């Protein structure tokens, strides 16, 4: 079997750091990994690729001792490791940067970096030493972070950098990075890449998981592809192409990255006039018509999410009016918005989008219970099952049964649940806030298709995204926000990256002022 | 490093300052209502009233910072009181009785820790169970009767825990202070202390960083049981006998002292300097209201309101903070 595992073309035959053979792992109801194998050599970056739910994270959690394998073998530095625990992995020099941020938000940067291996001086914590060490690590990788800052006060991207610094500070020889760039700005991504190159030169082996295939060319030597929990192929990165990789990942050829459908734009559905809310939404006005997708572009911190929250009634509005189908509607809380027919699929799936401990079924029916229950408030089980199974089917959500907890799904499938819970209602306006963050290519296309379908049904779709290609690829019209204001509006056919960027940085001086981190547009 | 940042880095010192100001205002108000409030005699009594609440507050703070709660504290106080008194009335050497009592309380603390961290029971349920069990033990050790006087032989014991004075202060106060210093040191200067904050802040992150979750949780519950045990001994020494319902409701006083002092019930935040102030506010309210002639019922109602208001303030401050952050993301 694993014939192509042994080949090496671009990389010199090097010392093998990790050799994984025929790993199997099942979770209740799901076979997560079936006979999966993987090699990692000294001084290389291996991209571990696959769709959501392909088993990448599971495999890496087994390698780092978070999960236990059911069967198979793991050799590290040529030696068989019988039972891999988190502790054993650390001793072996295996460090993992998890996809989800795993920080103690009440502790400082230095305290987090040394958590579990605190420096002691005669039995007591030596905070000064840990601080000095932290400064050194942060400096070495050119991260501009104060070791005394409480982690919870840092922006998500800085937290991610701290997480990376934490893994690097262990002097690990085998580094696993699970979606390290999903929350980083392009400047930070570049910093990360130079760190990775530095580590490679020092002889570390790095397993790199990312959904942003465009990134790979900067750093990757080899790729290993998984699909549905099975090993598919390992290749030299130089001898392959992205379309080929995608074909292996998806198992079929992906025709279009950004499927576009045309539909007739009808009358104006939603009109937002002079909306002000807090510091981040200033005098925002726009219109949304039947059957169109309006993209909202901008830098991180431009106020896009805040704008949607104000429209949806999560945050209170200072002034402004919202007109739906020609009539002014008063929206003080999300319930008002839902009643009026405006729904929101929020940015942070786990925090705002799902009750992760509840089942998929309960998540989908939660906002629709008013449609499912009788006068006494008793939920009709048959109506609920009908609605849920229809949603699952139409969105192709992959799951063993609808009673599994939402937290057990992969990112892409979770996102579909977030979207799916709104589709059962006949909403007039659907707002998608970063719906494709952290999900794979094929799942992205499925999300685009859902938006397209809504568009064809005459729904108005507001699509917020930080990734320029998808905004330009999917929207009919693009609004650009900067510093809480709408600074530009253009038709997609007139849009170029440069124009959008110039609108998005209109108040660039403000961005540079000390308080706010200068965020850069992600062009990756 | 500027002051504001230092405050931030020291885990919620902001609230400590706020409640200290509150405490001062309370003292002034009671001082005006009744000038005797500030008399030396009342001050001595006041501190002696505060000491047990400070102790159980420290215990509860430890557990709260790990993100759990210990409801068994009050019953453990009663158990400690009854076990020690019963042993002494049966003729055992008082210090031997103290050791055995401490041992039995540590067992309950160990059980709490293991039930929560190892068997993963929700702390509310696990300690609700041990609370009932400990109260049952308090009742059964002397066949469902309060004990007789612990007698002459126990004078040394009573002197040590209650009426003796050292350096002008009642021993009870010294005991509370010494334990506070030790536990504050552990919490702020040792690895165990750091881990207690870490598991309360983010259990998963702590686990993945190699923190011993079970060990650390057990230690926090052990501290809680040591504190409760000491308070039981103080009550036994105070009344010179064992009472079965000693410590009734103390678990909630402990939560009150912790929370007023800025310890978050959600874990990861607070410090036991705040618990001193929290316990002092509780004590001043009790003592001051008593002084102006308010009945017990009114005192309970006032303290309940104070607890709710202080948690409410905390929640408002915090939600404001996290709200802004959510938007920044």
From TrEMBL, chain A:
GO biological process: monosaccharide transmembrane transport
Domain ABC transporter, chain residue ranges per copy: 18-253, 264-508
Lineage: Bacteria, Bacillati, Bacillota, Clostridia, Lachnospirales
Cellular component annotations (GO), alphabetically ordered: plasma membrane
Species per Swiss-Prot/TrEMBL record: Anaerocolumna xylanovorans DSM 12503
Pfam families documented for this protein: ABC_tran (PF00005)
Keywords per UniProt: ATP-binding, Cell membrane, Membrane, Nucleotide-binding, Repeat, Sugar transport, Translocase, Transport
Protein name (record): Monosaccharide ABC transporter ATP-binding protein, CUT2 family (TC 3.A.1.2.-)
Keyword DNA repair attached: no
From TrEMBL, chain B:
Pfam families, per database record: BPD_transp_2
GO molecular function per UniProt: transmembrane transporter activity
Database matches in CDD domains: TM_PBP1_transp_AraH_like (cd06579)
Gene Ontology CC: one annotated term: plasma membrane
Membrane-crossing segments per the record: 12-34, 46-64, 95-117, 167-187, 220-240, 252-285, 297-317
Keyword entries, A-Z: Cell inner membrane, Cell membrane, Membrane, Transmembrane, Transmembrane helix, Transport
Subcellular localization: Cell membrane
Topology with respect to the bilayer: Multi-pass membrane protein
InterPro entries: ABC_transp_permease
Name the UniProt record assigns to this protein: Autoinducer 2 import system permease protein LsrD
Species: Anaerocolumna xylanovorans DSM 12503
Lineage, uppermost ranks: Bacteria, Bacillati, Bacillota, Clostridia, Lachnospirales
């Amino acid at each position: 079997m694993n014939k192509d595992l042994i080949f090496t073309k671009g990389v010199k035959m090097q010392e093998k750091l990790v050799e994984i053979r025929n790993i199997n792992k099942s979770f209740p109801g799901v076979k997560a990994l079936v006979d999966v194998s993987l090699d990692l050599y000294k001084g290389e970056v291996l991209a571990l690729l696959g769709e959501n739910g392909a088993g990448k994270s599971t495999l890496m959690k087994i390698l780092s001792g978070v999960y236990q394998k059911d069967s198979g073998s793991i050799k590290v530095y040529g030696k068989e490791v019988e039972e891999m625990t988190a502790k054993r992995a650390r001793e072996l020099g295996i460090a993992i940067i998890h996809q989800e941020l795993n920080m103690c938000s009440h502790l400082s940067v230095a305290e987090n970096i040394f958590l579990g291996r605190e420096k002691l001086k005669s039995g007591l914590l030596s905070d000064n030493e840990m601080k000095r060490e932290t400064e050194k690590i942060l400096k070495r990788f050119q991260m501009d972070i104060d070791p005394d800052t409480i982690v919870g006060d840092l922006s998500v991207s800085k937290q991610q950098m701290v997480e990376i610094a934490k893994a690097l500070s262990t002097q690990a020889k085998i580094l696993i990075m699970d979606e390290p760039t999903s929350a980083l700005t392009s400047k930070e991504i570049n910093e990360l890449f130079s760190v990775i190159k530095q580590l490679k030169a020092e002889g570390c082996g790095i397993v790199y998981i990312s959904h942003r295939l465009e990134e790979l060319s900067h750093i990757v030597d080899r790729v290993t592809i998984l699909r549905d929990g099975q090993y598919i192929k390992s290749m030299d990165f130089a001898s392959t192409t992205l379309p080929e990789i995608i074909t292996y990942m998806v198992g079929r050829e992906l025709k279009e990255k950004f499927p576009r459908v045309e539909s007739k734009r009808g009358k104006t559905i939603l009109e937002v006039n002079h909306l002000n809310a807090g510091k981040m939404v200033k005098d925002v006005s726009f219109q949304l018509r039947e059957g169109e997708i309006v993209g909202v572009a901008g830098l991180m911190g431009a106020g896009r999410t805040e704008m949607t929250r104000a429209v949806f009634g999560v945050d209170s509005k200072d002034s402004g009016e919202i007109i739906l189908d020609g009539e002014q509607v008063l929206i003080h809380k999300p319930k008002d918005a839902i009643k009026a027919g405006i729904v929101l699929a929020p940015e942070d799936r786990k925090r705002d989008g799902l009750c992760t401990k509840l089942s998929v079924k309960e998540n989908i029916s939660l906002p629709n219970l008013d449609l499912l229950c009788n006068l006494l408030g008793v939920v009709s089980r048959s109506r609920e099952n009908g609605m849920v199974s229809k949603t699952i089917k139409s969105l192709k959500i992959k799951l063993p049964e609808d009673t599994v907890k939402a937290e057990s799904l992969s990112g892409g499938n979770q996102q579909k649940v977030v979207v799916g819970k709104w589709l059962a209602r006949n909403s007039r306006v659907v707002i998608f806030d970063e719906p494709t963050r952290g999900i794979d290519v094929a799942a992205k296309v499925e999300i685009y298709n859902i938006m397209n379908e809504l568009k064809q049904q005459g729904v108005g779709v507001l699509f917020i995204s930080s990734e320029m290609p998808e905004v330009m690829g999917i929207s009919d019209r693009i609004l650009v926000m900067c510093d809480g204001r709408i600074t530009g509006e253009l038709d997609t056919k007139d849009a170029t990256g440069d124009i959008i960027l110039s609108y998005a940085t209109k108040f660039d001086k403000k961005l540079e002022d000390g308080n706010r981190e200068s965020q850069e547009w992600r062009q990756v | 490093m500027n002051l504001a940042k230092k405050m931030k880095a020291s885990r919620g010192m902001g609230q400590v300052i706020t409640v200290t100001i509150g405490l001062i205002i309370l003292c002034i108000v009671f001082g005006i209502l009744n000038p005797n409030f500030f008399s030396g005699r009342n001050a001595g009594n006041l501190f002696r009233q505060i000491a047990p609440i400070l102790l159980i507050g420290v215990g509860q703070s430890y557990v709260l910072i790990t993100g759990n709660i210990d409801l068994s504290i009050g019953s453990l106080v009663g158990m400690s009181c009854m076990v020690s008194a019963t042993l002494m009335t049966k003729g055992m050497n008082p210090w031997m009785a103290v050791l055995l009592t401490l041992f039995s309380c540590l067992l309950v603390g160990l059980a709490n820790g293991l039930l929560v961290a190892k068997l993963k029971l929700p702390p509310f349920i696990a300690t609700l169970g041990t609370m009932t069990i400990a109260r049952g033990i308090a009742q059964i050790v002397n066949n469902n009767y309060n004990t007789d006087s612990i007698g002459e032989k126990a004078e040394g014991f009573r002197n040590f825990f209650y009426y003796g004075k050292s350096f002008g202060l009642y021993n009870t106060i010294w005991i509370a202070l010494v334990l506070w210093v030790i536990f504050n040191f552990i919490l702020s200067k040792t690895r165990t202390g750091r881990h207690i904050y870490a598991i309360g802040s983010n259990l998963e992150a702590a686990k993945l960083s190699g923190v011993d979750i079970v060990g650390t949780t057990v230690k926090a519950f052990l501290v809680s049981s040591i504190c409760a045990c000491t308070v039981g001994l103080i009550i036994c020494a105070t009344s010179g006998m064992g009472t079965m319902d000693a410590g009734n409701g103390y678990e909630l006083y402990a939560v009150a002292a912790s929370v007023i002092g800025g310890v978050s019930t959600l874990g990861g935040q607070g410090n036991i300097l705040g618990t001193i102030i929290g316990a002092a506010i509780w004590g001043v309210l009790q003592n001051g209201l008593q002084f102006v002639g308010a009945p017990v019922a009114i005192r309970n109602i006032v303290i309940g309101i104070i607890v709710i208001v202080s948690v409410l303030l905390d929640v408002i401050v915090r939600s404001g903070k996290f709200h802004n952050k959510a938007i920044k993301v």
